[in-house]
Amino acid sequence: MNATPEPLDEVAPVWARPEAFPEAPSGWGWTDRKGGQHPLGSLDELAESIRADRSSAIDLVWTPDYPRMVVPEEIPELFHALFAARRRWAAADLEYSISQLKLFGAGVIVVALWTWWQNRPLLASTNTGIAVVLFVMFALIPWYQAWKRGRELHGWSLSGMQAGIPTLRFETWLDLQRAPLTRIFAGLMVLTGVAQLAFPGSIDAAGLVKNAYHHGETWRLITAPFLHGNPLHWFLNMGALLYLGRRVEVFARWPHVPLVFLFSAWVGGEASARFYENATMVGASGGLMGWLGFLLVFETLHARLVPRRARKRLLAGVAATALVGLLGYRFIDNAAHLGGLLAGMVYAAIVFPRSSSPHRPQSTITDRVVGTLALASSVGCAAFTIWKVGRFH
Q1: CATH number of the domain bearing residue 331
Q2: In three state form, how does the secondary structure of 33-46 look?
């Protein structure tokens, strides 16, 4: 399934071209994240809108000097307004993250004291481990990110603002792209999530119960990825699904969304069955980590498609997952995560040759045929999961 480049003459990736964003109306103004337009009467009014933006609602802006909408950082005259807004956002984020540190830190202390009072080993306690993981995910990591953003502003300059334009254009353009296959996968997760809420015992019915798997119920490899351990697990995976799936779909094209997911989820399930012989596994993490591993290799092989800073964020995602997996090794299936990650990386290395082109690969007929079969299989797996869950009940 080799890919061929788009027959285009442009030398810039699609998000960096002037036509990446809509044509600009007359005058000045800005758009919000839902596409709503807010016309203004002057550049000063635009600057004041940015300075007063407390929720990062401004997405794109336009002025008479630009034929198309642009990200605010592309207009040098908006530097001081952007600096004031970013400084306020950074301070607010830091203040909120500190409150989260206190809240989740208190939770860890309470759980630890409860464990100690019950004369249970503190380091071997699953509840303590969960509390620590939640502290890291929802307090420590956000605090570090907020602190880092604040530090970066100390030396922020016009040249520094302009250096970040490629990443901002990339992320803004990516958010504007349609990703129907990713939405289908999200819909499947919603349907199976509803079924899981409606029918108690879903995990025993269709999760990767290792004893049942080793006794011939290999079909559990294709049903477990559509179930989750709890609502928090589901929400975390849905967030990753919507971002990673869109990125795979937009740059590698839609057939590889279901192909990479199914292959990686299967490999992750097999790894879990080999290394965690007793623990039951559920969750889409194997497939999601496959998308992440796929993007790491694919974007490295097609280095001109994505700005370097955006690729580094994927590595940060791997590092954060590894940290959380290390802290929660007693209840997080690291074998499924690692298996899925490696599967996605291998897939990208085999299917996509290295390219110096700035253009996205085109799907071949083989890609589309096999991708359609994989999509139908994904829908079938979700339907089979729901049927198993309902039949068990």
Answers
A1: 1.20.1540.10
A2: CCCCEEEECCHHHH
Q: Which two tokens stand for residue 19?
A: 């036509």
Chain center to CA of 90: 22
Tens-place pLDDT, residues 157-199: 888 898 899 999 999 999 999 999 999 999 999 999 999 999 9
- Quick one: 24 and 134 in the same domain? no
- What are 107-129's pLDDT values in tens digits? 999 999 998 888 877 777 788 88
CB 345 within 8 A of CB 297: yes
Own/partner pairs for 386-390, CB < 8 Å, 24+ apart? 386/191, 386/192, 386/195, 388/205, 388/206, 388/223, 389/192, 389/195, 389/196, 389/199, 389/202, 389/205, 389/206, 389/227, 390/195, 390/199
Q: CA-to-CA distance for 262 and 276, rounded, in angstroms?
A: 20
Residue 61: give the domain boundaries. Answer: 14-77
Among candidate residues 255, 258, 200, the one with its CA nearest the CA of residue 227: 200
270 and 372 both lie in a single domain: yes
